[in-house]
């Protein structure tokens, strides 16, 4: 499923919608170039899960845990990680069963954490704020859960976010 998101606010709004189908144990692997909207989407997911406080990129601390919402959110930036051993050092599997884990730049590094996962591919048009998000379910019941997120009314909430 691919969805066009005209503004960063739309990206956050889509993240809030996506949060509605998320549950403890979910692993999301965010893929896309710099500026594609990975953190904006994660901010929306955090808002949709009801986590308090601001969700910011964990670039320098590698991982942040946001508690206090419907489900804890573990937000990881794997950009500076170069090996599976470095991922293992984070002990992400400790929080995985009880949290929603979102990993930016995680492709090729975190797939072993869960048998089923959702790969979220983000892209951005050159010289534009418009982004496209493509959801790629890998295993489990992801395809069924995502059926309720088909593109349509409610994807865009201009002026909100």
Structure description:
With 161 residues, this protein is α/β, with parallel strands linked by helices. The chain has a domain at 12-123: P-loop containing nucleotide triphosphate hydrolases (Rossmann fold), CATH 3.40.50.300. Helix content is 25%, strand content 24%. It has a seven-stranded mixed β-sheet with strand order 1-7-6-2-5-4-3. α1 packs across α2 (38-49). The longest helix is centred in the first third of the chain and has 12 residues, at 8-19. The two termini are 23 Å apart.
Structural class: alpha/beta
Give a quick account of the main beta sheet: strands, pairing sense, barrel closure: 7 strands, mixed
Helix content: 10-25%
Mean of pLDDT: 82
Estimate the global geometry from the Cα principal axes.
Answer: globular
Amount of beta strand: 15-25%
Instruction: Please give the radius of gyration in angstroms.
Output: 14 Å
CATH topology of the domain at 12-123: Rossmann fold
**What is the helix tally?**
5
List keywords for this structure.
alpha/beta; Rossmann fold; seven-stranded mixed sheet; 5 helices; 7 strands
Helix and strand arrangement:
Blueprint: E1 2-5, H1 8-19, E2 27-31, H2 38-49, E3 63-66, E4 73-77, H3 84-89, H4 92-96, E5 100-104, E6 117-124, E7 131-138, H5 142-146
Parallel strand pairs: 2-5, 2-6, 4-5
Antiparallel strand pairs: 1-7, 3-4, 6-7
Helix pairs in contact: 1-2
